[in-house]
Amino acid sequence: MSYTAETLQLLAPDGTLRYSDETDRFRDRVDALDETTLREFYRHMAVTRRFDIEAGNLQRQGQLALWIPSIGQEAAQVGSGFAARAHDHIFPAYREHAVGRLRGLDLTRIIAMLRGLTHGGWNPADTGNFHLYTLVIGSQALHATGYAMGVRFDGLVGTGDPERDTAVLVYFGDGATSQGDVNEAYVFAQSYQTPQVFFLQNNHWAISVPVSVQSRTPLFRRPAGFGIPSVQIDGNDVLVSYAATAESLDAARSGEGPRFIEALTYRMGAHTTSDDPTKYRTNDEVAYWQERDPISRYETFLTARGVDAAFFEEVRQEGEDLAADARRQTLAMEPPPADSMFRHVYSDEHPLMAEQAEWLARYEASFEEQA
């Protein structure tokens, strides 16, 4: 399933900016983007991709159990991530590396998690309200909806104060739309008119199941059946990703209820490093999406605006530095103390946890006695 007649797009695959009757409403938002922000779109996309490649290499070299690549989906993530305000809350799935970095997440925290060194990764209060990765498919949609219900109950919607009005942005993939949790989230979101945006990154493959098998119609039409306004965008176009998400978040914050965005993009790599996409994808399909690469498309756009080669070289070097630093940090990571597994299970001290920790200490000591 590729683009449809209803797909909103600003940047064509050749990098030219084109408005239509359907997208002219985004003109003011795009025109308001200054040169620094336009360059930052590119910087975050390109640098995150370089990190992504390095993390995949580290996994292949045995340095972490698994890696989840996001290569090809950078425009959907960076555009939507820039549209969120600092006090908005973001609930990711497990592939939103670019959004996490944008919100202040040290990407090596993801490596530590997938290396098995943490219980969940990070405290959202320290990462710009970027909540934890969720490996249970689609469950974050309910987490986000519950949080958004709380935002409404707290009266942080429709006040007209941009410093108070809050929205919730939740990411998930096309495979998650087949889960009951996501559809239940639609019900509660519409019933309670939650201030949230459902952002579907349709990368066309739920591991090895194509989206054409999951749905005979475009996925953005499903939420409409729940009464949630929805749009379909070119997810490889960072400008329309930004503009459509900003529009939807503004509506949610103002009290107009939930919104839904289907961003058509493509997972260029494997689902995870445990997967072999050559078993189920054709070379022609991959080539089609390579021609629509979000970073090269946007680079062409910036070049036409007069951005010189020095900027792109600066970004390339920043990506190399980040990759090298991530490798250094990964190789220096040490296993956590064994008793850390008993921390944070309960908010207060708990006798069962104390008993289990004591048992483990005795068990490990028994090996030293035998030696």
Automatic annotation (TrEMBL):
It catalyses: N(6)-[(R)-lipoyl]-L-lysyl-[protein] + 3-methyl-2-oxobutanoate + H(+) = N(6)-[(R)-S(8)-2-methylpropanoyldihydrolipoyl]-L-lysyl-[protein] + CO2. Keywords: Oxidoreductase, Pyruvate, Thiamine pyrophosphate. Pfam families: E1_dh (PF00676). GO terms for molecular function: branched-chain 2-oxo acid dehydrogenase activity; magnesium ion binding. InterPro entries: Alpha-ketoacid_DH_E1_comp, DH_E1, THDP-binding. Its EC number is 1.2.4.4. Its cofactor is thiamine diphosphate. GO terms for biological process: branched-chain amino acid catabolic process. SUPFAM superfamilies: Thiamin diphosphate-binding fold (THDP-binding) (SSF52518). Gene3D superfamilies: 3.40.50.970. Residues 42-308 form the Dehydrogenase E1 component domain. PANTHER family: 2-OXOISOVALERATE DEHYDROGENASE SUBUNIT ALPHA, MITOCHONDRIAL (PTHR43380:SF1). The branched-chain alpha-keto dehydrogenase complex catalyzes the overall conversion of alpha-keto acids to acyl-CoA and CO(2). It contains multiple copies of three enzymatic components: branched-chain alpha-keto acid decarboxylase (E1), lipoamide acyltransferase (E2) and lipoamide dehydrogenase (E3). Belongs to the BCKDHA family. This is 2-oxoisovalerate dehydrogenase subunit alpha. It comes from Microcella alkaliphila. The lineage of its organism: Bacteria, Bacillati, Actinomycetota, Actinomycetes, Micrococcales.
